[in-house]
Design goal:
Length: about 240
């Protein structure tokens, strides 16, 4: 087998070096693109990532994505989670860092997340799925009207729609027994499932209602990891 000349070897090494630099640049570009696309916690389309970061060359996507995911997790504390979206390949960027309390947020974020936690808390205490109409009836009992601006939260309906876009809440149609038409239900979205602690949610809602976590058997069993335990077997914590 003929040996490569010195010039051929140098050209080969230079080519490999250039390829490595190009791939490294693409990885950095892809990380920046994902961070920018998720700035408002929006759902990210895979096609948008390829179009912006890879100039439309989707063949590179699978090759460099593992390293991109490592950087997002190790450097920025984020995890990419796939989301079902009508046949499109979409994802969201979820924080892997433990969230602080609402008191640690600035006023703007505190307003936004107080309403979100109130909504998620109600849904959770109702076993995870409720008709949207019942959710708004509950919010009315605490002075939050779907059709009117609130003195503290601003426009509740607009905020609620943003929670859906950000995958904190999912809205879907479902048939109800004894009714001909489908009703609209809401439940926790994929972002809420990854970023919100159900155990902390249960504890917060119990403080709000002046109740004990064990009063809510289904939720307590879930948050304690007691999936094979009967509600009758639960002992009161001392």
């Amino acid at each position: 087998m003929p040996r490569l000349s010195q010039s051929q070897t140098q050209q080969s090494n230079a080519s490999l070096s250039t390829e490595a630099l190009d791939e490294s640049h693409l990885i950095v570009n892809m990380v920046k693109t994902i961070l920018n696309l998720s700035m408002n916690k929006s759902v990210i389309k895979r096609t948008d990532i390829s179009s912006i970061a890879l100039k439309g060359d989707s063949r590179l996507y699978n090759r460099i994505m593992p390293e991109v995911e490592d950087i997002l997790q190790e450097v920025y504390g984020y995890e990419l989670i796939d989301v079902d979206s009508k046949g499109q390949k979409t994802m969201i960027l979820c924080s892997t860092i433990e969230t602080g309390t609402l008191l640690e947020l600035n006023e703007t974020y505190r307003r936004r997340y107080t309403l979100l936690y109130l909504i998620l808390g109600y849904i959770y205490m109702k076993n995870g799925t409720v008709p949207e109409s019942l959710l708004w009836e509950f919010l009315q009992t605490v002075g939050i009207d779907e059709q009117h601006e609130h003195a503290y939260f601003g426009e509740p309906k607009k905020l609620f729609e943003s929670y859906i876009k950000q995958a904190y809440v999912v809205r879907f149609k479902q048939s109800m027994e004894g009714m001909n038409e489908e009703s609209i239900f809401v439940s926790w979205g994929v972002r809420a499932k990854h970023e919100v602690s159900k155990k902390e949610m249960l504890e917060s809602m119990c403080k709000l209602m002046n109740r004990k976590p064990t009063d809510f058997k289904t939720q307590y069993i879930e948050t304690q990891g007691l999936s094979n335990t009967s509600s009758d077997d639960i002992e009161e914590p001392e």
